[in-house]
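[step 3/7] inverse_fold.run input=structure_tokens len=410
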């Protein structure tokens, strides 16, 4: 199948490479000339596991462009749009870049004689696809010689395991505008997954609600576990892991994400929770769970900062071990390491940081050090997440009798 992926970022590029490795022809399009040049001339690098291996195969059916025309698009059957949908101040997602993409591409494909499907992968607010996106699609393709369908297929991925998540999802979610859209889209999903998974086909609006609902349920689960940790802190001799493990054995609940540790962070969970809160409030749904979840997450962060301050002196130098929001990626969006480091800095403490993913806390007063150096210079340490160096770190801290708090071992 001839496909196109618009937006070669942290999800778009792995998706394009994986589709191409499955035997389909893929046109990768991004407006960043420097990115396209680096991909075409072999200077591109990514820390995403497995991606460089796919790109090193130099697949002849994977081509990259920073500009396109109608001739290039004439044989394209399926267009994936994977562009940013940044959060607005009110918590909603902006469709600006999706709309610009549709306005640019659809006039070039409306003269095709074969059907085309535009597939939105970027997370959008419920009502977007049936609303302004569909309206723009129809306007931009007015006079089309063939059918142009719309689908919504958000991926449930985490940075650091994107390819794994794409190949082994729990299910495929697909909102479609017309039944014929499924005939074009389904073969692509079947070819990139390692085994058969459920395909949930529904309306565009239903799929939009499912996407942010899944992430909101997960953040509620994380926040519930962390609230139990705060509760256990009021009692003696409670192992929070024993508590959450027992709760997770109930099949109605399950153990995934029911582990007390760091606050949730990253580029998806916090903003999807804020977006759901806005949606609930606009719909006059009382007792908005997403809003409560966000408040719990912030209060839990404050709890951790106080716990650290209670165990340190103002003269102590604190080392933040783990700056990115999770192992396997340098992304720092809503990272617990960043948030805690900046909060301690506001309390007048001297802060250093170390990260095995080369992530840094964005503040001139916080220096990034090598592991041996930070272990030598600091008096107290905050271990924010998992790392392959964790056993080494714990061994050295215990050997030197230096104080530390492990957010996943409170």
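[step 3/7] decode complete -> sequence:
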């Amino acid at each position: 199948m001839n496909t196109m992926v618009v937006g070669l970022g942290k999800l778009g590029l792995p998706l394009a490479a994986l589709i191409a490795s499955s035997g389909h022809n893929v046109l990768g399009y991004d407006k960043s000339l420097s990115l396209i040049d680096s991909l075409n001339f072999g200077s591109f690098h990514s820390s995403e596991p497995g991606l460089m291996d796919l790109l090193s195969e130099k697949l002849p059916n994977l081509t990259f462009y920073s500009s396109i025309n109608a001739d290039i698009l004439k044989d394209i059957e399926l267009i994936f749009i994977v562009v940013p949908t940044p959060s607005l101040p009110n918590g909603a997602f902006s469709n600006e870049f999706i709309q610009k993409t549709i306005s640019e591409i659809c006039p070039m494909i409306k003269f095709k004689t074969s059907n085309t499907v535009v597939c939105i992968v970027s997370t959008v607010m419920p009502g977007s696809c049936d609303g302004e996106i569909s309206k723009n699609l129809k306007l931009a393709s007015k006079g089309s010689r063939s059918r142009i369908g719309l689908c919504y297929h958000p991926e449930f991925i985490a940075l650091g395991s994107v390819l794994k998540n794409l190949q082994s999802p729990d299910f495929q979610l697909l909102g479609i505008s017309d039944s014929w859209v499924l005939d074009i889209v389904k073969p692509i999903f079947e070819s990139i997954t390692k085994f058969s998974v459920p395909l949930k086909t529904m309306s565009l609006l239903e799929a939009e609600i499912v996407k942010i609902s899944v992430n909101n349920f997960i953040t509620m689960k994380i926040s519930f576990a962390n609230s139990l940790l705060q509760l256990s802190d009021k009692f003696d001799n409670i192992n929070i892991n024993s508590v959450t493990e027992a709760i997770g054995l109930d099949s109605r609940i399950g153990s995934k994400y029911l582990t007390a540790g760091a606050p949730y962070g990253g580029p998806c969970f916090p903003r999807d929770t804020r977006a759901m809160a806005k949606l609930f409030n606009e719909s006059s749904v009382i007792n908005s769970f997403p809003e409560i979840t966000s408040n719990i997450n912030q209060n839990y962060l404050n709890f951790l900062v106080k716990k650290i301050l209670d165990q340190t002196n103002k003269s102590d130098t604190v080392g933040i071990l783990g700056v990115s929001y999770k192992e396997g990626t340098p992304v720092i969006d809503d990272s617990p390491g960043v948030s805690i480091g900046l909060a301690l800095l506001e309390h007048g403490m001297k802060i250093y940081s170390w990260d095995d993913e080369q992530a840094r806390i964005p503040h001139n007063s916080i220096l990034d050090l090598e592991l041996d150096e930070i272990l030598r210079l600091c008096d107290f340490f905050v271990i924010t997440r998992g790392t392959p160096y964790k056993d080494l770190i714990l061994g050295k801290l215990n050997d030197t009798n230096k104080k530390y708090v492990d957010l996943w071992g409170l």
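[step 4/7] annotate
The CA atoms of residues 170 and 249 lie 19 Å apart.
The chain is about 40% helix and 15% strand.
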